[in-house]
Amino acid sequence: MGLQAGTKLGNYEIGAPLGAGGMGEVYRAKDLSLQREVAIKILPASFSRDADRLRRFTQEAQATAALNHPNILSVYQIGQENGAPYIVSELLEGQSLRDVLRSGAVPVRKALEYGAQIARGLAAAHGKGIVHRDLKPENIFVTRDGRVKILDFGLAKLVQPDGDKGNEGETIAMQTEAGMVMGTSGYMSPEQARGENVDQRSDIFAFGAILYEMLSGRKAFGGKTGAETMAAILREDPEPIEASRNISPALERIVEHCLEKEAEGRFQSARDLAFDLESLSGSSTAKAASTEAIRRGKRTGVWIAAGVAAAAISGIAIGISLHNSKPVALKWQRLTYQKGMVENARFAQDGKTVVYSAAWRGNPSDVYSTRPESPESRSLGLQHARLLSVSPRGEMLVLENAVYTALSVSSGTLARVPLEGGTPREVMQNAQSADWSSDGAAQAIVHEVNGRSMLEFPEGHSILETGGSLATPRISPNKKQIAFIEYEDPASGDSGSVQLVDISGMRTMVSDGWADLTGLAWSPDGREVWFTGSRDSGVNKLYGASLKGTLREILHVPSDLRLMDATTDGRVLIVAEAWHGEIYGRGADAPKERDLSWFDFSTPQALSRDGKWLLFSEAGEAGGAQQTTYLRGMDGSTPTKLGEGNCDGLSPDNLLVVCGYTEQPGPLVLLPTRSGTVKKLSDDHLYHSFALGWLPDGKALLFVGFENGHLRRVYLEAFEDHPPRAITPEGVHSSRISPDGKLVAASMASGKLIIYPLNEGEPHEVPGTNGKEPIAGWGRDGKSVFILENRGVPATVYRVDIETGKRELWKTITPEETSGAYFTSPVQIGIDEKSYVYGINRRLSDLYVVEGLK
Predict the structure, then answer these.
(1) Tell me, what CATH number does 151's domain have?
(2) What is the DSSP letter of 364?
(3) Cis bond before residue 794 (omega within 30° of 0)
(4) Pair 76, 104 in one domain
(5) For residue range 686-740, what is the model confidence (pLDDT) as tens digits?
(6) I need a surface site. Which of 309, 323, 513, 712 has the fewest CB within 10 A?
(7) Is residue 313 domain-shared with residue 244, that is, in the same domain?
(8) Looking at the structure, do residues 326 and 408 belong to the same domain, yes or no?
(9) Is 132 in the same domain as 201?
(10) How many domains does the chain have?
């Protein structure tokens, strides 16, 4: 018998029934503690006495709870009431894929979009060693906004990760007996139908059957009975998809590749499958990642356990996945063994010696040399210097006394130094990066001029200037082109594009829409640009792009990769590194600072006015392609997941946050932190960067946004029908609203910190400021602001009088463990001047020489 509406189940109040299946009944319910709507799946008490059914139900809960991904149903809690086990999960609005398919085949574009999302969800599960084993349209849900969610990991089996020599029969709370058939007829793989052991490739077969059905409107394998269907799976191929559907040969090959009878013939990973589908769609997560909501990227804060990178690929020849080719044996030679961050590395002129700069064990950056045959590195005596390039004539370009001016950009004094040592010779102030030509006769230099990034080649001859930030210039072997990365908004992340510019200044887009870009070099044959990056803020992989923009994946391992250099004989310098975003802070009444991080890329978004609540986002793999927003107490209590997407602007009563549509331009959205409905504001056709804060009465908010083709400015949104009102001119770098809601402090691209009134009065410049220092908050008296003077680790926060410009040190902030920590941002100080939070970027790196890449 079903539960009646109003029934209490722990902290939940049962509402209307949503459905029932072989694994239980599902109800809409209300979380009385957090005042939010949830879904509850209940296994009736009579069923719980069935040991197998109970085991599978518990297994589903454990398997799903182990996952955190935007394309997998989120599980909040597992409980039991009066002998009846239940699972509490997020409440989805929409319909199952089975319901979608009742109308026949879906458009090819939609099939690609849904397929890529399913594949990404499977990749996340498989990355945790979990195989679904019952993937079918009934277990895939399409939300009203087009997001796909994988449900019901009730048959999921935890498989041993590669290289694990433990008991291969272990499962989550169960062990599959030989010959036991589990799954759903029509979607199970041949090996599953035979009762054999299965792995992630079984899910890929089921995915192929689902993709076939989306494209054709009919099942891939059918029969009058389950036995006939299983026979078809074992012996027959599906009928060809009609040519009238305009299915490309490449898409047909993907379907066929998924449905190979032998597991060895299929895609070997869901990540590769997702990549191929996204390549066909032409949109993929790349476009989502290029929107302003994602531009802040995962690199706004980061850490990884020491040795993860080394453990992932340590030591030896391994096989990698090259699209449309057989696995290639690679030789990895590890070069570094210290705890910290490798900043840059290059091969010296002899092709064997490697020169690199690194910050080990929390010490300042230094430049070292090493050779593959020795584990030792020799300091070149250049403390506080960062390597940029090594000339074939035996000379280095270094950046002295460099400071991070943005997440992926440093600025300092460019100098030339003999490789054998000596006194650096200054070349240029305010330089950011540089490269030698292949003959050592010329330099390409990026430096800052009036807040803009300028590229010179040769020195003294400007060929390109941009409002973004140019990085990692690499001169082509024939000296006719320069490849570079352009970060669209370096202060907010490392998203951007790979481009080329010739000596006349004509530039060409090679590949854009990247959420993360980290390293770049010319391929050994000079025909491609190789780079490391990620479309969706996941693991950075190595890619190659032809000069016409044809893209291919070259290498991925279970670690972020950063490309450093490549030689003409095919040897490549690669850093395998672990990145994390960490949050540290202190509540108003807390005796000391605490670690407030959650998953892999935690980034603080907003501190409540009372200093008791922290709004933060997860922007790494755990947060998914669109990021995920959480709310947690400053006392370190367990966070509450508010939803997918990047949100900020916590309201004065802590009941609302402000989110931007994933696709920009798009309207702002008010998301409740407890109960209530999502409210979409009128579309102002602006690109929304982030919410700045609310007025104290909660009747209006300020946000930073921009019109297409223009720079960012602060706007006031009064929740009325007329458009938002601009408060500042264009060119806002950072800004904060005063405690009384009457003033806005804004660091401007003009190089000034300016105070703007919201209503009456004239703006005025704060003396002695340069406009480059992020604003961390206002003093509670409204007469001073806090600025982040140094964004490194440790970072320094100063109080600045807005009338006189007088500054005094407020606090030096730094985490207890500093190895690999290199960038502090963002920082927010509460209006009580006692509570504060800050984000830390941390990279722990190992440098390798890799042979065999093609």
Answers:
(1) 1.10.510.10
(2) P
(3) yes
(4) no
(5) 888 888 889 999 999 999 988 877 888 999 998 876 789 999 999 888 899 999 9
(6) 323
(7) no
(8) yes
(9) yes
(10) 5
Tokens of 847: 């440098």
- Give the Cα separation of 205 and 188 in Å (integer): 7
Neighbouring residues of 659: CB distance < 8 A, sequence distance ≥ 6: 629, 643, 645, 646, 647, 668, 669, 670, 671
Residue 373, classed as helix, strand or coil, is coil
764 and 717 in one domain? no
The range of the structural domain enclosing residue 816 comes to 739-834
Co-location of 136 and 266 in the same domain: yes
pTM: 0.61
65/775 Cα distance (integer angstroms): 39
Q: Are strands 613-618 and 836-851 parallel, antiparallel or unpaired?
A: unpaired
- Same domain membership, residue 560 and residue 669: no
DSSP helix/strand/coil, 98: helix
Angle at 44 between CA 42 and CA 45, to 5 degrees: 125
CB atoms within 10 A of CB 77: 16
Residue 734 falls within a domain, yes or no?
A: no
Residue 1, in any domain of the structure: no
Say yes or no: 633 and 563 in one domain.
Answer: no
Question: ∠ CA(462), CA(463), CA(468), 5° rounding?
Answer: 95
Sheet with 84-90: strands ordered across: 8-9, 12-21, 24-31, 36-42, 84-90, 75-81
Phi, psi of 411 (to 5 degrees): -135, 140
- On whether residue 840 sits in a domain, the answer given is no
Q: Is residue 733 part of a domain?
A: no
For residue 842, which phi and psi values (nearest 5 degrees)?
A: -135, 135
Convert the pLDDT of each residue in 753-765 to its tens digit. 999 999 888 999 9
Tell me the pLDDT tens digit for each residue of 143-197. Answer: 887 889 998 776 565 554 443 333 322 322 333 333 344 456 789 899 988 888 8
CATH of the domain at 437: 2.120.10.30
User: Tokens 């990178």 sit at which residue?
Assistant: 309
